[in-house]
Amino acid sequence: MAISLSQKGLYWCCSSTGLSNPKRKRHVNIRCHPLFISPTRLTIQTLQCQTGPCLSKQKVISCHSREAPVLEARSIEEVYEALTDRLLTIAVSMKDSKSKYIVGVAGPPGAGKSTVASEVVCRLNMRWPERELMTNYTEKPAEIATIVPMDGFHLYRSQLDAMEDPKEAHARRGAPWTFDPALLLKCLNTLQSQGFVYAPSFDHGVGDPVEDDISVNHCHKLVIVEGNYLLLDEGVWREVSSVFNEKWFIDIEIDKAMQRVLKRHISTGKTPDIASWRVEYNDRPNAELIMTSKKNADLVIRSVDL
């Protein structure tokens, strides 16, 4: 089947010629964001979220059948705008002022999870007041979105010290078993049931979590949780994943991600030899495990260089 695409406003018009009747052309208008395009094999899929208000049956174009839709763009700015537009549409459809729409963003180290989450939240909080001032408010409304990083749910160094092999525990810090997913699950359940919660952050200077450092308030309709293992389908992580209304996975080649992580280690003062050892001994095995969870995503986002 030959497929061509032409942009018409918010529609992409697909013209296809069936092999059984080469003279007959079929035109299909697909209402979707123009960026939900993969340049390889094209199949139409329906993206639906687990619970809560969303872009119900939003049709997107994906490169693989029976897999999550793929977001590809020419620049990182287009990625930010597409994701911001998506969540703004969801926020508008939320009638209950106390409800939360929680998005889990996963991906290997170096994929850009923190950057994407921060940028999308920043843009949501800039654009929401503009919209609300035009429609409902005379005063500037509160922020609509916030981030809860998974970093705050690291085990404390003292907890690693108490393990059977403390040296190995510290060397593998960042592996799934060096986090406290039960605490993360409790935090998310509290957020859903009460509409607000205090979450821990992580002090990289000290190397330990800081309790109750992040305040998620009633005004935050949209909450983005970002971290490596949020889509793992094992143990308590599976329960954590089930809380999210929508699950994103930032996809990147592992070698490219490890190059970024290596530079990050060196920038924090590690020697190149120690940084390389850290990548091969800890970061790469973690990344390989994380990549297996991509199949659990509702949306796959191709990593784009900044």
Write the layout of secondary structure elements.
Elements: E1 2-8, E2 11-17, E3 25-31, E4 43-47, E5 58-62, E6 70-71, H1 76-93, E7 101-106, H2 113-135, E8 145-149, H3 157-161, H4 166-171, H5 181-194, E9 197-203, E10 208-216, E11 222-226, H6 235-243, E12 246-251, H7 254-267, H8 272-291, E13 299-302
Parallel strand pairs: 6-13, 7-11, 7-12, 8-11, 12-13
Antiparallel strand pairs: 1-2, 2-3, 4-5, 9-10
Helix pairs in contact: 1-2, 5-6, 7-8
Domain Phosphoribulokinase/uridine kinase: 102-304
GO molecular function: ATP binding; kinase activity
Organism: Acorus gramineus (Dwarf sweet flag)
Total beta strand runs: 13
Spatial strand order of the main sheet? 6-13-12-7-11-8
CATH second-level architecture: 3-Layer(aba) Sandwich
The best one-word shape is globular
Q: Write the CATH homologous superfamily.
A: P-loop containing nucleotide triphosphate hydrolases
The low-pLDDT segments are: 1-65
Mean pLDDT over the residues = 81
Q: Which strand-content bin applies to the residues?
A: 15-25%
Helix coverage percent: 25-40%
Q: From N to C, what is the helix and strand string?
A: EEEEEEHEHEHHHEEEHEHHE
Counted up, domains total: 1
Number of helices: 8
Task: Please report the distance between the alpha carbons of the first and last residues.
Answer: 35 Å
Structure class = alpha/beta
Largest sheet: 6 strands, parallel
